[in-house]
From TrEMBL:
Family: Belongs to the malectin family.
Domain (Secretion system C-terminal sorting): residue spans on this chain: 242-320
NCBIfam families registered for this protein in UniProt: Por_Secre_tail
Record's GO cellular component terms: membrane
Location (main, coarse): endoplasmic reticulum
Location in or out of the cell: Endoplasmic reticulum membrane
Any Pfam family the entry gives: Por_Secre_tail
Domain Malectin: residue ranges: 63-202
A GO MF term: carbohydrate binding
Keywords: Carbohydrate metabolism, Endoplasmic reticulum, Glycoprotein, Membrane, Signal, Transmembrane, Transmembrane helix
Species for this entry: Cyclobacterium qasimii
Protein name as it appears in the record: Uncharacterized protein
Lineage summary: Bacteria, Pseudomonadati, Bacteroidota, Cytophagia, Cytophagales
Membrane topology qualifier: Single-pass type I membrane protein
Transmembrane segments: none
């Protein structure tokens, strides 16, 4: 990464951001990070490092390099652009893409009035990722467009990439979840407000349909659980354990509910996007819950598990997925 200007790149001061670098090979047992100045002093607030998995994603997933050819980006295989109707292609590789190590994906795009009809194997629930970077215009207000996925189940309205992301040549991924497809084809439509819509890449993957995605749940007898819950401290959720951590497939959560009611388990990524792992009606007591993360397309990175009851957030635990 060169010539980083935090204020400019993130559109102001006191705005946190995480830059993820993947597929770093270490051969001598030491990972080196050098920070040097261009003007004033280099800086950093935190560093997280974890081992990448060599296990590929095992479920249905389709990655489309919009406007470009087939790509191999680390362990991710992106197929050449297809399933589209209308639009044209554009290439601009004159400038580095920020907020991504996969510059090649964002150097091409499909633009104009166009749509995608992406075949999926079964009528089911899917997640759609839309990958964007403004590589043509340099100022906000020049390109504004709308996106509609599967008859409005997920929409982006009046999207101005330079305005939203703070600069051109900066990547971002917008995620639409819980998209129900009943006819075997997932539709994505792009329409203009000003100038031409565009997209750099589209990812579609199947979600689990087994409700809470819970593998197992162990509890003690109800009377014993209630007695145990009465001994809890007032600060709810201090004794939350999560393992294995880091993980790449399954994770066990141990926690104590101090009152009966509705509980939610939500995983949040660094961009604030949420994935609901489960919703349960629980009695007082201690619980062991096993969640299967392999049914989602979580990329490697740092996530936060939020355990909520009907009174709000209970506890946040950091989870590293590799």
């Amino acid at each position: 990464m060169k010539d980083i200007d935090l204020y400019k790149d993130y559109n102001g001061s006191r705005k946190a951001n995480v830059i993820l670098s993947e597929n770093i090979q270490v051969t001598d047992g030491v990972l080196d990070i050098d920070i040097s100045k261009t003007k004033d002093n280099g800086k950093i607030s935190g560093i997280v490092m974890y081992k990448s998995s060599s296990i590929p994603y095992s479920g249905f997933i389709k990655r489309i390099n919009s406007g470009g050819g087939a790509l191999q980006l680390g362990e991710e295989t992106w197929q050449a652009d297809e399933y589209y109707s209308g639009g044209r292609t554009y290439l601009n590789d004159s400038k580095e893409i920020t907020n991504s190590d996969n510059d090649e994906l964002f150097y091409t795009e499909r633009y104009g009035e166009f749509s995608y009809d992406i075949p999926v194997p079964t009528a089911d629930i899917y997640t759609v990722e839309l990958h964007f970077a403004e590589i043509h215009w340099g100022n906000e207000g020049n390109r504004i467009f709308n996106v509609e996925v599967e008859n409005g189940q997920y929409t982006l309205e009046n999207l101005d990439l330079v305005h939203e992301l703070g600069a051109s040549h900066r990547s971002e991924v917008y995620i639409g979840k819980d998209i129900s497809v009943t006819d075997g084809v997932l539709n994505v439509n792009f329409s203009k407000v000003k100038d031409n819509p565009k997209v750099s890449g589209i990812v579609v993957y199947k979600q689990s349909t087994d409700g809470a995605r819970i593998l197992s749940m162990d509890t003690k007898p109800k009377a014993e659980l209630e007695d145990e819950a009465t001994k809890l401290p007032e600060t709810l959720g201090k004794e939350v354990k999560l393992y294995p951590n880091p993980t790449n497939d399954k994770v066990r959560v141990e926690f104590v509910a101090d009152e009966p009611g509705h509980w939610e388990f939500v995983l949040v990524n660094a961009l604030g996007n949420t994935t609901q792992l489960g919703q349960l009606n629980l009695e007082k007591g201690a619980y062991h819950l096993d969640f299967d993360l392999s049914q989602y397309s979580f990329g490697a990175g740092t996530y936060y598990l939020q355990i909520r009851n009907n009174k709000g957030l209970l506890k946040t635990k950091r989870v590293i997925v590799f």
